[in-house]
Amino acid sequence: MNETMSLTLPNSICRKIINCSSAPQAIGPYNQAIQIDKTLYISGQLGMDCNLNLVKGGVEEETKQALTNMGHILKAAGGSYKDVIKTTILLRDISHFSTVNRIYSQFFKDHEPARAAFQVAALPKNGNVEIEAIAVVGAVDVGSVFINNSVVL
């Protein structure tokens, strides 16, 4: 017996497809991002230019480009890097972890979102790094709580 299930969203939930021309178009049957109410799910970004070519310069330049692409998608959805709450980084070689961290910290200056990083066997286009993100666009307050340090911002 074959059963199919479909996801039905209540009428009160808004679903938007986000695709912008300032970041590379998806290289498969997916969108750059999907927004459900205020939550934005950004598809994995490679270090590609808008012509769908990997930028030259290896993992460092690819990381910069992937994060720049993410910024364009965030902007198209009305957000910015400060709205990102979670990222996942896929690396072809985990030995580049420190290099990616150094560049990543230049983009996430106001806060550091939760994050996971994994080494994978291969990435599309033979890339070195792919970064996906979840953001809450239109959040009212971005603050920090330091427990055991007696500081609450």
Features:
153 residues, 2 helices, 8 strands, 27% strand
Fold and architecture overview:
By secondary structure, the chain is an alpha+beta fold. It contains 2 helices and 8 strands. The chain has a 6-stranded mixed sheet, covered by helices on one side. The chain has a two-stranded antiparallel ribbon with strand order 7-8. α1 packs parallel to α2 (97-107). The mean pLDDT is 89.
In short:
The protein is of the alpha+beta class and 153 residues long.
Count of distinct strands = 8
Mean pLDDT: 89
Show unreliable segments: none
Q: Output the radius of gyration.
A: 17 Å
Biggest sheet: strands, sense, closure? 6 strands, mixed
Report strand order across the widest sheet: 1-2-3-6-4-5
User: Considering DSSP H and I runs of 4 or more, what fraction of the residues is helical?
Assistant: 10-25%
Distance separating the two termini:
56 Å
Strand content: 25-35%
SSE order: EEEHEHEEEE
Indicate the overall shape: globular
The SS-based structural class is alpha+beta
Q: Helix tally?
A: 2
